[in-house]
Amino acid sequence: MAKKYVSRRNIEFMLYEVFDIESLTRLPYYSAHNKKLFDMTLDAAMKLGKDLLYPHFEEMDRKAPFLENGKVRVHPSVRKVMAQFGEGGWIAAKFEERFGGAQLPYLIADACQFIFTAANYSSSVFPGLTAKAARLITSFGSQELIDTYVEKMLNGEWQGTMALTEPQAGSSLADITTTAYPTDKGYYHIKGQKIFISAGDHDGVDNVVHLMLAKIDGAPAGVKGISLFVVPNQRPSESGGLTPNDVTVTQIYHKMGYRGAPITELSIGEKNACRGFLVGKPHNGLAYMFQMMNGSRLSVGMAAIGISSAAYYAALEYARERPQGRLVSDPTTPQVPIIEHADIRRLLLYQRSFVEGAFSLSMQCCRYADVETAADGEEKERAALLLDLLIPVAKSYPAETSVRSTSQAIQCFGGYGYCEDFPVEQHFRDTRIHTLHEGTTGIQGMDILGRKVRMKEGRAFTLYLEEVRKTIAAATAFDALKPYADRLSAAIAELETITADLKALGQEKGTRVMLADATVYLDYFSLITIAWQWLLQSIAAVKGLAGNPSKANANFYQGKLQTARYFFHYELPKAGALAKRLAERETITLEMEKTYFLD
Known about the structure:
Strand content: 5-15%
Distance between the termini: 45 Å
Helix content: 55-70%
Shape: globular
Structural class: alpha+beta
């Protein structure tokens, strides 16, 4: 396996030089923290990744979970991971102190999550899911539910999941049929089926707690009738023990990647003995669940970046060590490491420009989440709108590009990359899930174009334009960055025009026509957004070079600027072709009748 999977220096650059995490400590909510504590947190995360997660990366893939006597058996390390993440406060890291949390800023907590996903994505899923499920209970659940479930979840004793999907209702949650039947005993009888439930059962914890969507018997049709329930695999009994709750694992799905974490099919209430406990108010379940889904979408994006980071560093290590071919300028020389070849450098630059550009976007979203959490008034509202707008981009751009980036890592290895001898083939398989779960790319496209750029009468989109133009204005102060500021300025002006034209098209010809190329619009929006992030990083790099840095830091800053140049010259121009397509009015996909698809 590769010696390195993340850059500690880049994480520190993002936290301290680009996003100024220390400024958050002036807000009362984060006032207990300081740089020393942040550095200690990073130290601990790097150690956990190295000692606990990374050693089992390949073995968890080779020895996948299996179903035995109705129980899912997972790799033995899972129980250690959950215990150590619980004892170390990692599951509770972002929770308020009143729940036993550390109130860590999203910036540092998610930077640590990036380390964990890069070290071993499958392992990182178990505590990550649990934290999100527990957050739902603390946000919307009764005190009784909080007292019963949250402590054990945050301690890593109990697993948390989100249980949404059903066989007949994938992304169309309006069509779920799992039903909750009221009783007069403080609980509901739940009956139905759920599929694709990550960590839906396993022996790495003592219990699994599902945050499950269901419709109360007689509820309104569609999404307005959806409620949210806590449905444990085993419910706490009056004696203090656990009693089976009529939740049965009917199968484990055999997956192409991400094999260390089980995805299960669940049958609920076969014996009419499954109890579910309502979270919040009836028929508000989807609104509640969106908190977890939005957090999960950001986590999916971060996981894709983490996996790609690991693949990039494996490819970089190999390229530095693998002799192959000679310099075309002098074929009489000895073989050279393949990193000497321009095309290998192009493959590596593609990967680095994606990993560090997308990580910057994730950190940008974390910064907005921190302000939304700790500030108030207009500043809080602004951050919330910007975060909401960028979630589809922060989920889908990393998910889609990670597939290409890990593929480029394989390319650096040549035929060896296609074999199990090196980790990149596993990274490629592991990352493929991210375009699918927590809302496919097509759904994210419809979200950003159909809702996000239009919400609040376009207020979020206007704020986004302001943010990008603020960065452009700052970059023009540096001669070396002015050409790239000008390129981004032209791109953002075109985005504004294209967005207005698509809104007008929707008013003229209807939403279906407007959304026909929503995924194309998402790709277009994403390229411009990542260019913004690279310009933001470039400003920090230029400032760093002006501060008489050490040789190592000077090389780091120069590497940043060169990678930014790559993105502006190789990747941002692709936005022009997408803009051209979006400006056209031919509805090709809608006009392609289903009968035209020949057998």
